[in-house]
Every structure is written in C-alpha cells, then in structure tokens.
Amino acid sequence: MLSAFRKTLLGPTYGSPLEKIQILPTRSTTNPQKCYLAYITKDKVGLQILPVDGNPHKSSAFICHPDGVSDLACSYDGRYIFTAGGNDRTVLKWEVNLNALEAAASLGGEDLVPFYSLLEGGREGEFFRELEDYFYYVQLRSQGIDALETRQVSTHIPLEEIPSVMRAMGFYPSEEEIEEMINEVKFSEYVDTGEQVTKINLGDFIKLYINHRPAFGLSMKAIRRAFQVLGYDNENGDKVIDRGDLLLLLQCRGDHELGTSTMFALSQDIRIKLSCTILFLLCAEMATALGTGLPGLWSVLGRGFSGNSSSGSCKCNIALRAVCIRPSPFDRHFCPKCMQDRGTVFLGINIFLCWDHVL
C-alpha cells in the first residue's frame, strides 16, 4: 500500500477495472514525448492517451475475447497489440491506429468541454447551476455572513471549503478522502513553483469532483444489501437499522478519521436537522415573550428558562440553556408531557422540546 500519492484520476470505465496495463513503445518521430497506454479489462482491449486527466474521450476499447482476456503484450515498435483469451484458447493480433484515437479526443472538445458532459445535464443543466450557486454561497460564508463591508466576488474558494461543496453536490467522501483531495490540490504546483495552493477555481473543482466521485455511483442494490446485513425487521416487517448501532459501526469499523466531535454532529444530524432560520425565529419569539430582545435573551441562557409551547395542542416544556459540555451522542431527551423524543444541539445551544409541535 502506497503511503503517498500525487493524484486520483478517472481511468477508462468499460464495465470492469483495468486488469493489466503496459506503456505502448513510442514510434512517433514528430512528437517523441507523446505516450500511450495499452490495457485490458475483463473482456476488452483498449488504448489511453497519457497523461490521464479524467477526459473520457482520451481512451477507447473494444471487445477482444467475449469469454475473458487473460493477458496482453505489445510489439517492439508499438504497431501491434497481442491479446490472449481464456477458455477460447486464442491469441489475437490488433493493429494500433493512434490517429483515430487522437481524432476522437479532438472531437470531444478541449479544456472543460469533455468534463461538462460528465455532469448531469451538462453545461446548461441544473446541476451545474447549483454548483455555481454553492461557489458563491461558500464565498459569502468564508468572508463572514454578518460582514458589512463590500463583498469581494472571486472565481476561487478556499481549499477548506472543498468538503462542504462536495457534500452539497451529493458526494460524501470520508475524512481520509477529503484529506487526499485537499493535499492533491495544495501540492499540485509545488514541483514547479515551490509554493502551496490555497484556493481552487470552478473548473479545477469540477475536475476534482469527477475524478474522485464513485465512477458508477451508489446503487440501490448495495443499499438494500447493507440493510439486509446490518438491519432487523421492525413491527411492519421493514428492514431498519438502529441509529445507535449505525453510529457505533461508523466509529469502530468505518473511517478511522471520525472523532468524537464528528460522531456527535452526525448523531444530531440524523436526529433532527435544525436550520439557522428556525433557530433564529425560535430565539426571536422567546425574546419577544420575555420582553428582553435578542441581546437580552443570551443573559437568560446561563440560568435557564421554562415556558410553554404556543403552537399545537401539546403543552410541552421548553428548556433553553447554554451548553458547556456536550452530552453523549447517544443521550436521548423526551418530552415530559407526551414522551416524544426531542432534542438537538446547534451552535452550542441545547433546545429540548417536542419537535413535532414546533414545526
């Protein structure tokens, strides 16, 4: 296992992983630096233009042995590739046509054009527009939500914001994968300039996203299989996974980078997702009831406050207090009246109430 790496790139995707690769001997006199890679998959033989950058148009493959290919070899001059089958006991000779491969790569477009086609909806799709919006949202957050000075709109975002945008787009890498992505960008220019990169633009982010996301996505079959293995049948006969068991598995057998704070945030996110807007409105309503205003409300947090919910028919008590030591991720709090599960932690404030009646 390698302890260091340079990049993670999307290779040829033709139904199965690459089973063998070999550099094609250079036979170009006009451009001796041009290199190509010959490879085989489960039943195909193909060529890849080097260096690999995730562009799908820089590779091609054809079925060579329907029952499976076992090996390949290249001629000394790079003009031919030989493949050996398995049960069919055949050896085939393939003539290499690099001009056709280069033409296909050129027709696929330059710069970011080939990568746009790998996004859902392409350059004009909703997915790309959402990505642009998230780039602007992240800039607002990095400059401070409450900042009063003129905003500096940029085409770059800090590297620390890469995980947030990745997750907003539906890709949830582990902490180890996040570290790899950030280091990949951070040291991408170190050999040439001796300096670390501290920000990333939209084009490079798209390439990073395409090269790091799962090539074939997550199938429902895999999710159902996980529920079959980890779950149990509830009273309705459906497969369910206990939240405590899930968190325990993630912490003990999942990503080794998950710490207590991460697990606590995850458990609270699974329990209730409380938005800043709802929290602000709740605090504003309580401040109005107290007649203190929002600044005066914070002085109440240290000693606690008890009141009644004004919404719904449930008269659940509300306790709002500052939290110095956060409870265990598995702590549960119940409404004293209807015994419903309640509680979440957000921005250091612990709010215990019957959540169904707040919304």
TrEMBL record:
Keywords assigned: Cell projection, Repeat, WD repeat
Main subcellular localisation: other
Localisation: Cell projection, Cilium
Keyword Cytoplasm appears in the UniProt entry: no
One GO CC term on file: sperm flagellum
Repeat is among the record's keywords: yes
SUPFAM superfamilies according to UniProt: EF-hand (SSF47473), TolB, C-terminal domain (SSF50960)
UniProt cross-references to Gene3D superfamilies, sorted A to Z: EF-hand, YVTN repeat-like/Quinoprotein amine dehydrogenase
Protein name as catalogued: WD repeat-containing protein 66
Phylogenetic placement of the source organism: Eukaryota, Metazoa, Chordata, Craniata, Vertebrata
